[in-house]
């Protein structure tokens, strides 16, 4: 188990998308986050107290979470230096980067010398089976996206919490580093050997008979050349009864690939439904989740209403406006969209 509370690492980051793990923890588990560590050239903040390592330890922090993401998930020299200083101050280290903490000699030596723990969140279980595609009881919803980092985890968590508030049994099934740190369990899907991706999802979302829902966090996009393989295996393993499509309307191109345009929402809906029908013939799209965090509220409300009218699906920014209309569609409840109502 990773000891809490956490100090969240921002380092030298200047791109908001690069600190999504730290931000996700600050948003969904604020009670276990005592502060943030950032250098003077970091232009970002989570609105938590800014602390150095000694101050964080004095405030009760147990673990520095390296809650950043970069291309390839590498440990840079600056990050290693910071992690060493954090251990000297008395903190354990947790990381979801692809490059393992325990594989870096300087960190492994310091941890052994100081009695600190190194937690590699992106370490899959050793007993993952190969997927078999056999129908299994239970109800499952999967979030999918037009691109990476468009709000699939936020949407899934918001849906899970809203179902629980309605008295419906619901479990968030984490498939990425941030979700695992929030939920305390899950599978780091992009670190699983390709042959076992669908089996990993079958394993973390097994048969259930309580009339509840598994809310499965999506990864990547069928339209992202770098990560479509992960997305496809996830779709097949999930055997989803329902999908919610997530989209960032202000993004100019696929993340990290300026030579690739974003797909249209309509074609992305059809592609995901077509892929999902391999293992779930009756799958349906029940809503669209827009990440409008970079838009003024009035503009965001208008876009949600426009998108809903165009595609005939409940549309909202789940974190900003809620997910009630999407849940009504999911559960078969007749209700007007609260976002559409705001524009009436």
Rg is 20 Å
- The CATH superfamily label of the largest domain reads P-loop containing nucleotide triphosphate hydrolases
Number of domains: 2
The parts where pLDDT drops under 50 for at least 5 residues are: 340-344
Number of helices: 13
In spatial order, strands of the major sheet run 7-8-6-9-10-11
How would you sum up the global shape? globular
> What structural category characterises the helix and strand content?
alpha/beta
Number-wise, the strands total: 11
Strand content: 15-25%
Order of helices and strands: EHEHEHEHEEHEHHEHEHEHEHHH
Q: Could you say what the CATH architecture of the largest domain is?
A: 3-Layer(aba) Sandwich
Q: What portion of residues is helical? A: 25-40%
Mean pLDDT: 94
CATH class of the largest domain: Alpha Beta
- Sheet having the most strands: 6 strands, parallel
End-to-end separation in angstroms reads: 50 Å
Determine the CATH topology of the largest domain: Rossmann fold
Domain D-glutamate N-acetyltransferase-like C-terminal: 130-327
Organism: Sphingopyxis bauzanensis
InterPro entries: DgcN-like (IPR011669), DgcN-like_C (IPR035086), DgcN-like_N (IPR035402), P-loop_NTPase (IPR027417)
Protein name: EBNA-1 nuclear protein
């Amino acid at each position: 188990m990773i000891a809490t509370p956490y100090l969240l690492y921002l380092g030298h980051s200047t791109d908001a998308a690069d600190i999504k793990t730290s931000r996700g923890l600050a948003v969904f588990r604020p009670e276990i986050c005592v502060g943030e560590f950032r250098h003077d050239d970091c232009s970002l903040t989570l609105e938590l107290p800014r602390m150095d390592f000694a101050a964080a330890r004095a405030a009760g922090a147990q673990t520095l979470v390296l809650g950043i993401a970069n291309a390839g998930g590498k440990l840079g020299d600056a990050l290693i230096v910071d992690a060493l200083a954090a251990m000297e101050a008395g903190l354990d280290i947790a990381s979801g980067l692809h490059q393992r903490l325990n594989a870096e000699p300087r960190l492994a030596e310091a941890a052994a010398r100081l009695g600190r723990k190194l937690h590699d969140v992106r370490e899959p279980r050793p007993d993952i089976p190969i997927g078999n595609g056999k129908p299994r009881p239970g109800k499952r919803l999967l979030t999918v996206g037009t691109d990476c980092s468009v709000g699939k985890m936020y949407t899934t968590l918001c849906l899970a919490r809203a179902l629980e508030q309605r008295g419906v049994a619901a479990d968030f099934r984490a498939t990425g580093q941030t979700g695992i740190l929030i939920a305390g369990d899950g599978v780091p899907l992009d670190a699983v050997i390709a042959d076992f991706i669908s089996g990993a999802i079958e394993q973390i979302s097994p048969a259930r008979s309580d009339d509840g829902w598994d809310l499965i966090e999506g990864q990547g996009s069928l339209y992202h050349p770098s990560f479509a393989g992960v997305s496809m295996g996830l779709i097949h393993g999930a055997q989803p009864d329902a999908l919610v499509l997530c989209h960032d309307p202000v993004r100019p191109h696929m993340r990290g690939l300026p030579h690739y345009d974003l797909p249209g929402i309509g074609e992305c809906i059809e592609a995901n439904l077509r892929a999902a029908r391999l293992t779930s013939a009756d799958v349906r799209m029940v809503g669209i989740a827009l990440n409008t965090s970079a838009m003024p509220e009035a503009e965001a409300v208008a876009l949600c209403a426009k998108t809903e009218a165009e595609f005939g699906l409940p549309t909202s920014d789940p974190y900003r406006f809620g997910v009630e209309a999407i849940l009504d569609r999911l559960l078969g409840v007749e209700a007007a969209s609260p976002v559409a109502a705001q524009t009436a």
